[in-house]
């Protein structure tokens, strides 16, 4: 992935690092998935869905990537962005850990793409980053994401009350971890 060529995940889906030129495609993906993602994400204002806002997000993510604190990937079906997976909060030293987040386009949900993307990110965390642990959080009622994480070997490690403000409400989340070594 160092040369940023798309890596195949299977069934014609690829993953590659986010690029500055992805703003319009990412904006389209979020517009297309607005209702699908709304129950699982913070409340978004209209500006969030614009290419100019997505360009700002991309610049921020790439700045974090440049200092090795985040790895933002997009999931592609041809040239179309159909999701994202990100390792954030990458910490070195004795912790050697990162947080995992992802989403998949409504038209591609339930096809194993989330599982393939999580496996890809975990393999990258283990092999290329040498991390010891990856953590993920899910809403308690998000059975699909809990299943994806369980298939990848994550274990539930506890409840975080009022962890994130999702869809306008402070929501409890289940915390999951995968020890890589």
Helical residues, percent: 25-40%
Q: What overall form do the CA principal axes indicate?
A: globular
Q: Which class of secondary structure composition applies to the elements?
A: alpha+beta
Task: Please report the distance between the alpha carbons of the first and last residues.
Answer: 22 Å
Strand order of the largest sheet: 1-2-3-4-5-6-8-7
Summary tags:
single chain, 181 residues, alpha+beta, Aminopeptidase, 5 helices, globular
Structure commentary:
By secondary structure, the chain is α+β, with helices and mostly antiparallel strands. It has one domain (7-134): Aminopeptidase (3-Layer(aba) Sandwich). The chain has five helices and eight strands, in the order ββαααβββαβαββ. It has helices at 23-32, 34-37, 51-66, 113-127, 143-151; strands at 7-10, 13-17, 71-77, 80-91, 97-104, 133-139, 155-166, 169-179. Strands 1-2-3-4-5-6-8-7 form an eight-stranded mixed sheet, sandwiched between helices. Helix 1 crosses helix 3 (51-66). The longest helix is centred in the N-terminal third of the chain and has 16 residues, at 51-66. The chain is globular and about 40 Å long. The chain starts with 6 loop residues before the first strand and ends with a strand. The mean pLDDT is 96.
What's the short version?
By secondary structure, the protein is an alpha+beta fold. It has a single domain (7-134), classed as Gcn5-related N-acetyltransferase (GNAT) (Aminopeptidase). It is built from five helices and eight strands; from the N terminus they run ββαααβββαβαββ.
